[in-house]
Predict the 3D structure of the following.
Amino acid sequence: MHTSKLSILMFCMVFVIALPLYSGQTGAFIGVSGDYRYADDPLLETHAGRVDLHGNVDHRMLLGDTGFLAVSLFGEAAYAVEDADFSDYLEASLRNSWLLGPNTLEFSLGARQSFGGYDGSEPFFIPSWAAEFRFDRGFRSLNPFVTYEGYVDDSGIYNGVRAGFVHMPAVEFRYGLSVGGTVEVVENADRPDLLGSVMGSVDGLSGYFLNWSVQADATYRDSTDAAAEGFSGNLLGTVRIAPSRSFQIQVTPSLHWTYLIAGNTWDVGMETALRSDFTATDHLFWYVETVGTMDRLESGSPHPWSVRVSSGVDLVW
Amino acid sequence: MLQMRSRAIALLVILWVLPVGLLTGGTWSSQVDRTLSDSRFDAEESQQIRQIFTRADEEHLPVDPLVLRLNEGIAKGIGPTLLRDALDTHADAYRKTREIVRLELGDEEADRLFATATVWDRTVTLYREGVGEQQLGALLDMFSKQRSADKWNNYRYGGGLLMALQQWGLESATALSIIESLSRSAIAGEEYRGILDLLNTGIAQRIPPQEMAQRIIRSAPKSRTMHALGRMVR
């Protein structure tokens, strides 16, 4: 199993490295970043610092007049200062689209892998796949879509279907709604877990330089494991202001919640990120990000919280 | 008998329409007189300003935008010399853009453009914001070739996008190339402003603006909507 994971990864790397030999456009960037976290949380260390080196290679090409192919490979090696510990992360993806009249059929394959563990997790290998068909009936029309996606991890195999629509009554405002169902085949379970979800989104532009979005989803899990059965959801907002090519700022508040039926328990947490990107030249990018997190908002007792500040530089060629 | 009755009806209609026309056709004149009489300008200063409107009307330039500027200027307390110069400059902009449009498109197509006041207004705005004659000519040429019935409306949005892209910091030649590729697409003009969102998302994904611009230029003619274009370039 380990050999096949390595083979897949090596294949992706060779393919991506050889991509400039194919027609199309190849892009790459490499960067370094560091972050510091202060936490008032019994589950986390009070002070934590990390530095990382990361890079990305991607290739894209048009296939005749109706097709499109994009392949990318992202990698990161990080060092946690307090633990004197290294971690790694690799992500490969392939996306292939075809225009069928005004509509689009898209296939994608992906894989996420860590050999030694990443961000506190054990080593993992997670392949994923998806197919989507989108109707394009034109601007201001209702445009339906249907998606199938799945992935495999150490817990089991996941397959889901989602159907919905996107409508843009005006260029300043677009909304979408979808419903989905997922089957999770979990190891050692009597039967698969069944999940039903609803997802909605609204987004828009204000003038030329400000855009915003709000997304919300809610999921119900039906499981033979009573401790896992219940509801969960997310609410995410984004506002980005980009008055020039050399500066943009983005605020992203989010809320996540879980309700477990058996224990009648809630778990609510929130996170707010503030990020600024500076483009010194077309090839040099600098960013600063602050993320504040607060958990267990459902309880009256002091809430564990943390603040992380990170900054990095990326060089593009 | 029938012929005499028809002539009588036609005469009555003319006699009815003419006074109504005299009453409403002098709208700008009465508005200008009313505004100037409410101002602190003396007779000579008012006459100099009035001459700008008279000349514009004789030359078949749009007078309503000048009336608007006059009202704004009086409300802001701008002095007569400054106001006269501002109105002169604005009227000159209409004269100049009319020349450019006629030179680029020919009289027949130019008249179609001038028939929609907002399109001519946008042309004047572009000219006054510093878009050169060559760039303006290129913009007119690319949208004149569009087969859509909304081409001059799309031109208006294309012009707005050009100003926004230049303000954002994109080079003029690249900005024009993006708009040219949009003019060859089926994307509605109202959606053009979504290009800035693509460029900004590109930066967040470490795609340099020039590279993202090239992707847009290659993919736009194949796209029906901005959303579809976004899927191809990100």
Summary: Residues 17-25 of chain B have pLDDT under 50 and may be disordered.
